[in-house]
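pasting for ref
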Amino acid sequence: MSIQDILQTIVNSLPTIGRYSLITIGIVLIFRTTATTNFAQGLIATFGTFLTTWAALTYTALPLWLCLAMGMTASFLLGMFVDVALIRRARHITPSGKQMITMGVLMILVNVIPVLFRDITLWTRPGKSFSTAILTFNFFGYTLNITEMGLLCFVTAVVVLGAVFAALKFTKWGLGVRATAANESVAQMLGVNTRVITAFSWALAGGIAALGGFFTGAGTALNVTLMGNAQIYGFLACVLGGFGSFPAPILGAVIIPLVNNFAGNPNLFGPNAGMWQNMITFIVILLLILIFPNGLLGKKYIKKV
């Protein structure tokens, strides 16, 4: 396998890294503030993607970015609703119980989305199509290619994640999130409105996930399984990187697409590499988790008795 192949495989992974990172940051935000894993994260993103498509098809005069803003707002509000109407009322039940609530939300959305958007089967817009243009650039003498949409996805993800991490570090909301993640009871005693923090975290997770759904579904056939793989790999990224911090799962979201694309490279694993791609990916992830049970950047906690 040549250096050209290695570099091109890395570049080919950038759009997937962007999409997975957008859904992963939402998963870790929810987990760190409410101690639950949201199984409905992918369906909330799918709902926003369908609504974006509906807006683009219904109001053809609107710019695409405004249609996307409508879809992200819908997922933002849906995420907030799940927390305020459901999770908050079940705060005293077990974490497994909260997970079952999100599973219930998933099942509802699986059946509701096809009914609400039954006429939408393709992410498209009359008279306009998503750019499939290939951008070619030179990197230290090596010629590499990436689609315009893929590059836009990766750059958008970097900007959004940069904004989220900056907000977590330098804003009052970020301080509240970090305090709530450390210890919700202590945060409340210090005057942090944890209800606002958790509601906004759920909402923000939904809005960002819808952005990932847009890039996943752009120009493709739409169905309720649109974000299935992204959600699965998002959870794996959190486990691989470690749930103990906000940046750690993003490392997992970078590693997984790289492993997957290298595993599917015919120059590395032969012409039938695609047959074994997912299996090899999961084996590598499993081995890493066995070696780093607390995550690649996780810490081992010792309880004192």
